[in-house]
From TrEMBL:
Record-linked Pfam families: Fer2_4 (PF13510)
Molecular function as annotated in GO: iron-sulfur cluster binding
Domain 2Fe-2S ferredoxin-type: 2-81
SUPFAM superfamilies, per the entry: 2Fe-2S ferredoxin-like
Protein name per UniProt: 2Fe-2S ferredoxin-type domain-containing protein
Coiled-coil annotated residue ranges, if any: none
Taxonomic path: unclassified sequences, metagenomes, ecological metagenomes
UniProt signal peptide: none
Length: 91
């Protein structure tokens, strides 16, 4: 599989194409909160919306656990917009 380079919170990371944003963030030590990836809860990945991130040039936030990386992505995991959305999900 081909490797791609992307940027998460200003840090470059190279991972295999098809890796989720959540997995790529974990590889460089960035913690993104999530509930739906906990097998004991039985949720479908992407359904809890706790792991939303901001992807530059996308109009909406996206679930990090379900969004595959691609070359050149620029992602923000803790922007004001992201934190506000996570708070709303948990309220």
């Amino acid at each position: 599989m081909q490797e791609v380079k992307l940027t998460i919170n200003g840090q470059e990371v190279i991972v295999e194409e098809g890796t989720t944003v959540l997995e790529a963030a974990k590889r460089i030590g960035i913690k993104v909160p999530t509930l739906c990836t906990m097998p004991e809860l039985g949720f479908t990945p992407g359904s809890c919306r706790v792991c939303v991130v901001e992807v530059e040039d996308l109009p909406t936030l996206t679930a990090a656990c379900a969004y595959p990386v691609r070359e050149g992505l620029v992602i923000y995991t803790h922007s004001e917009r992201v934190l506000k959305a996570r708070k709303m999900v948990l309220e």
